[in-house]
Specification:
This protein folds into three domains: about 10-145, PAS domain (Beta-Lactamase, 2-Layer Sandwich), CATH 3.30.450; about 165-270, 2-Layer Sandwich (Beta-Lactamase), CATH 3.30.450; about 275-470, Heat Shock Protein 90 (2-Layer Sandwich). It is built from 13 helices and 20 strands. It has helices spanning about 10-15, 20-25, 25-30, 50-55, 90-95, 145-165, 185-190, 220-230, 275-310, 315-340, 345-355, 375-395, 440-450; strands at about 35-40, 45-50, 75, 100-110, 115-125, 130-140, 170-175, 180, 205-210, 235-240, 245-250, 255, 265-270, 345, 365, 370-375, 405-410, 420-425, 455-460, 465-470. The strands form four sheets. Strands 7, 8, 9, 10, 11, 12 and 13 form a seven-stranded antiparallel beta sheet that branches. It has a six-stranded antiparallel beta sheet with strand order 2-1-6-5-4-3, with helices on both faces. A five-stranded mixed beta sheet has the order 15-17-18-20-19. The longest helix is centred in the middle third of the chain and has 36 residues, at about 275-310.
Length: about 475
């Protein structure tokens, strides 16, 4: 029986070598053998047995009794529970054929009705002329091993049924990458039935990278997991079926080890992400279309504003200021579009606003760590920075070639993530405080305090304008 280790079938050889007559007299030898043993003559009469045999039979047969030929058991059955007549027993077959029988499983039923599985090793005993004069049977109880094997088989069966019931594609390999199991979902996804023990690394027909580049099977995620003995996560791949259909999927290959930690194979789950990819494609198309429409709308607004402002009584200064604010919003929109409207980098926002004044090296410089602004925060900060830059270009450091502007920022500790931004002008005309509050000052105070829940302080020092701003980095509810 597979999975049950064979005991020492040569135990009977110790008896055979003594000869039939001496063997029957060697009771002490029989009792000391680590296995159940009994011997029969050529007609099948039981001539000798040890206590291990009697214990397995649950009885002691009568020596030499013609009514108890071939075996001392109460009843015997095939492993499938088919009854075995004494004349058809393994011992009877050996006595008739003169050929040994080894590793044959038989079910023994005791007088109390209990049953055990026994593994038989029967050798014929022949005289010098080669005539069969008897046989000896060495057998042992394999019930526990058989139960363990049956439980293992049942466990494997239940596991296979469970894996086949799962909607996700799952397969396993040995340590060399050969496919050892796949469920129905894996076959359906691959569009083929892999060849167990032959196909390697993956159940799919062909593989590709997300960009369409061919991916050799021996370089696929499962191959990497086995070769490097580590799980592989967060990678995409595309499977091509024999019918030409391509299926994008996420693999989750995980190495398997035995109790000693030795790599014995791997299991992989392939998650079909076709619908996700389609949804992402539709979403991207919608976002691209939205971005295009917003850009067109900003362009239309800018054109309408330019035509309207050219009317009587509207100064060029007002027109330029309004168009500058629209341009600042347009540049920020491009930044947010590139980042899928998730965030905008603070330094990138500043670079877009101050790009016209950075032509001369060293005139404008930034200093600070990478800081991501939420979209609504980025919009407000872009407008605020635009107003500060416009004021510096008209009256401050950016109005003369010798002027310099430094913008620095740092992250603040505490339970709430905040950033402090310092705007420092120098080298420009002497600064005098304004006599009235302009749009820029109102925007600075109102937007940072009311909209962003931050703060701003601006001072008009003779050497240049100073502005200190502090804002939270968490998104502000719309």
């Amino acid at each position: 029986m597979a999975g049950i280790q064979r005991r020492d079938q040569n135990a009977g050889a110790a008896i055979l070598s003594l000869g039939m007559e001496r063997a029957l007299k060697s009771a002490s030898l029989l009792e000391n053998l680590p296995i159940a043993v009994y011997a029969c003559d050529a007609e099948g009469r039981v001539l000798s047995f040890n206590q291990r045999a009697a214990g397995l039979w649950g009885r002691s047969p009568r020596i030499g009794d013609d009514s108890e030929l071939f075996c001392g058991s109460h009843k015997a059955f095939q492993p499938d529970s088919t009854a075995i007549a004494r004349s058809d027993s393994s011992m009877a077959q050996v006595l008739r054929s003169g050929e040994p029988i080894h590793d044959r499983e038989t079910v023994i039923e005791r007088p109390d009705g209990s049953r055990i599985a026994a593994l038989l090793h029967i050798d014929p005993i022949k005289d010098d002329s080669g005539t069969v004069i008897g046989a000896v049977n060495c057998f042992h109880d394999v019930s526990a091993a058989k139960r363990a094997q049956d439980e293992l088989n049942d466990s494997e069966r239940r596991l296979r049924e469970l894996l086949n019931a799962l909607p996700a594609a799952i397969y396993t390999t040995d340590a060399a990458g050969r496919i050892t199991f796949y469920n129905q979902a894996a076959s359906e996804m691959a569009g083929r039935a892999p060849v167990l023990g032959s196909d390697e690394w993956c159940v799919t027909w062909k593989l590709f990278m997300p960009d369409g580049t061919p991916l050799p099977h021996d370089q696929c995620p499962m191959a990497v997991a086995l070769k490097e003995d580590r799980p592989i996560r967060n990678v995409d791949a595309i499977a091509e079926r024999p019918d030409g259909k391509r299926v994008p999927f996420l693999p989750f290959p995980t190495p398997l080890h035995d109790a000693s930690g030795k790599l014995i194979g791997a299991v992989n789950m392939l998650v079909d992400i076709t619908e996700r990819v389609k949804a992402e494609s539709r979403q991207k198309a919608m976002v691209d279309e939205l971005n295009h429409r917003v850009k067109n709308t900003l362009t239309t607004v800018q054109s309408l504003a330019a035509q309207t402002i050219r009317g009587d009584g509207i100064s060029e200064e007002i027109r330029a200021a309004f168009e500058g604010r629209l341009l600042a919003l347009s540049k920020l929109h491009n930044r947010l579009s590139d980042a899928h409207w998730e965030h905008a980098d603070l330094q990138s926002v500043l670079e877009d606003i101050l790009a016209p004044y950075r032509e001369e090296s060293g005139r404008v410089y930034f200093e600070g760590p990478a800081v991501d602004l939420a979209p609504n925060t980025a919009v407000t900060m872009a407008l605020v920075m635009h107003e500060l830059a416009t004021n510096a270009a008209k009256y401050g450091c950016l109005s003369v070639p010798t002027g310099m502007l430094a913008v620095s920022w740092k992250l603040l500790g505490g339970s709430e993530r905040r950033v402090r931004i310092a705007w420092r002008e120098s080298g420009g005309p002497e600064v005098t405080p304004p006599t009235r509050t302009g749009f820029g000052s109102r925007l600075l105070q109102r937007s940072l305090s009311n909209e962003l829940k931050g703060s701003a302080e601006i001072s008009y020092e003779p050497t240049g304008v100073r502005c200190s701003m502090e804002i939270p980095l968490s998104p502000i509810p719309a």
